Amino acid sequence: MNRCLKSIVAFGVISISPVAFAQDATDKWISEFQPASISEDEQRAEIKWFQDAAAPFRGMEINVVSETIATHEYEAQVLARAFTELTGIVVNHDLIGEGDVVEKLQTQMQSGENIYDAYINDSDLIGTHWRYQQVRNLTDWMAGEGADVTNPDLDLGDFIGASFTTGPDGKLYQLPDQQFANLYWFRYDWFTDPANMADFKSKYGYDLGVPVNWSAYEDIAEFFTGREIDGETVYGHMDYGKKDPSLGWRFTDAWMSMAGMGDKGEPNGLPVDEWGIRVNENSQPTGSCMARGGATNSPAAVYALQKYVDWLTKYAPPAAAGMVFSEAGPVPAQGNIAQQIFWYTTFTPDMVKPGIAVMNDDGTPKWRMAPSPHGAYWSEGTKIGYQDAGSWTLMKSTPVDRAKAAWLYAQFVVSKTVDVKKSHVGLTFIRESSVNHESFTERSPELGGLVEFYRSPARVQWSPTGTNIPDYPRLAQLWWQNIGDASSGAKSAKEALDSLCFAQERLLSRLERAGVQGDLGPKMNDEESDDYWLTQPGAPKPALANEKPQGQTISYDELIKSWQ
Question: Global pTM?
Answer without folding.
Answer: 0.90
